[in-house]
Amino acid sequence: MKKLNKTTLKNAFTLMAAAKTMTEVYEENFKVVSKYVHATSRGHEAIQLATAMQLKPYDYAYPYYRDDSILLGIGMKPYDLMLQLMAKKDDPFSGGRTYYSHPSLNDADKPKIPHQSSATGMQAIPATGAAMGMQYKELLKIEKKDKPITVCSLGDASVTEGEVAEAFQMAALKQLPILYLIQDNEWDISANAKETRAQDAYQYIQGFHGIEAVSIDGSDFQESYQAVEKAIKTIRKERRPYLIHAKVPLLNHHTSGVRMEWYRDDLDEQKLRDPYPKMVKLMKDNGFKDGELNKIEKQVRKQVEADYEKALAADDPTPEDLYTHDYAPTEITEEKGERSPEDGEAVVMVDCALHAVEELMKNNDKCLLYGQDVGGRLGGVFREAATLAQKFGDERVFNTPIQEAFIVGSTVGMAAVGLKPIVEVQFADYIFPGMNQLFTELSRAHYLTNGKYTADMILRVPIGAYGSGGPYHSSSVETMIANIKGIKVAYPSSGADLKGILKAAYHDPNPVVIFEHKGLYWSKVPGTLAAKTIEPAEDYILPLGKARVVQESSQACIHEGQALTVITYGMGVHWALNASKEFGNKVEIVDLRTLNPLDEETIFNSVKKNNRCLVLTEDCLQNSFARNLAGLIQEECFTSLDAPVKVMGSESMPAIPLNSVLEQTMIPNAEKVAAKIQELLDF
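RESULT FIELD:
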């Protein structure tokens, strides 16, 4: 085996001593540091350092919660890590917002680390998305730099997660430049390998053709270093995925909250595999003397103890720190451009969206589109991506496997490397496999990195009941999505609004979900012609969070106490427009257009003017966004109301039935809305 140079060995030993000492100091001060849950790398140090020491500043790393040795290996100091351990204000990763060894880093001299969550195995998809972004930039020659790689570190137990399989599938399919580092200590909290897996990660990966793999002793620094060296060299040169399965002991608690003595029966055996004595022997075999090693250990101990005391005395965040970085600021705050050009033609909603995406892709080579069936053969099941692959190539517009979690979560990695992906989930009913990524990764990326990263993406979601689509193609899910903080949610009712919102969403640095009602795409549903509009000019942009009064009540009706505001969005706008025809000028209709952020000013002004309010939705009423909005209106406009705020929506049943009679019984329509309006006016 080729020997490592002495500088590398000395650096590795010093860092390993630091990692070991940090664990010891934490245990010596357990009652203090266990206020917040933490885990350490004790037993995993060799493979972690061997990996971290070979990464470049232009690489991307996705560590997991036990990887403090990786952080030391890329240049972080014990003090930096201890600030996060104790959730201090100057924690360099999150400002005291998240756990120890949950880093985020965007320093010029270190590998880039986007947001790291605690959900098991969830980093595999964003990490693979980052590698996919690297490949895309290389194919389009967007950047001509050194060949970066992505490293995704995973515990062996996390490999049983389905989302990890989705990541492996895409890495193998697309041949992405990523190293999966699997640290196998054979424990999943208190469950061991025999209880939780049919095979280890090295055996499992054999089913993913195109991913080279090696299994090594991860407690041996030299073996680990050379295995990682070979893997990284291969990935940089050949731009393909690689997996290292590193067998390691777990020499500390699962976390500070789950003590090893509670359940472990293998501690004596595990101690025999401790990487630290192996490292000491390696140092001596390479000419280092006991005195030199002892001197390093003493210096490290002194520094770690000093860092601990310094971190302990550091400032906590202030209450005001809670309210920063929930959203990244956007420059798009005003409506701009021509909404209705004089020479413009009325086009259906789906074409407005198609042309918006085409214009964005034409002007921004960092914009790409992917999802289910959006590629060149079909161009989307609703033809919403027709011709785009032919115009921009299969590298920019492409199909994915049926992997909603990957479609959604990969955008976090894409955004981290500087791209702006537009992705599609085929039906709102199928968004749920992507919810974990949407909630865990996308929505929290900006907040938990203290503003260092954003999940800059657009998720398009066809939604709503249309033409007896049945229980799996008709659902309204906006309530669940709008309840996820950290994302923006739009639900336009017309082609002009959809085009303007798509443009605004592209330039917004936050994740944006756009619901697009299938029944409005072509205005084939009776009473939806208003969704067909003059197509706005290319420069038109509509800020998120701006409602529109699409129909005003008259002053005479207001004066007579016979006016009413309908607050709605999507298909509800068209039900309200048609229902209002029999009421003269009594009905004012406010189209929200965006559910988050919410244009409260426009809502409250309309309700206070008309003194009655109906909140209309297609979603089921029970525990809905609409009922929540009604409560807000009741609270803010109470003294202006002449009647209780009413809410109308679909019946609160588990699913929309296939039969057309049952479907129409369940959802609102213009006739039902008219009856509710009359009820409110008669109150």
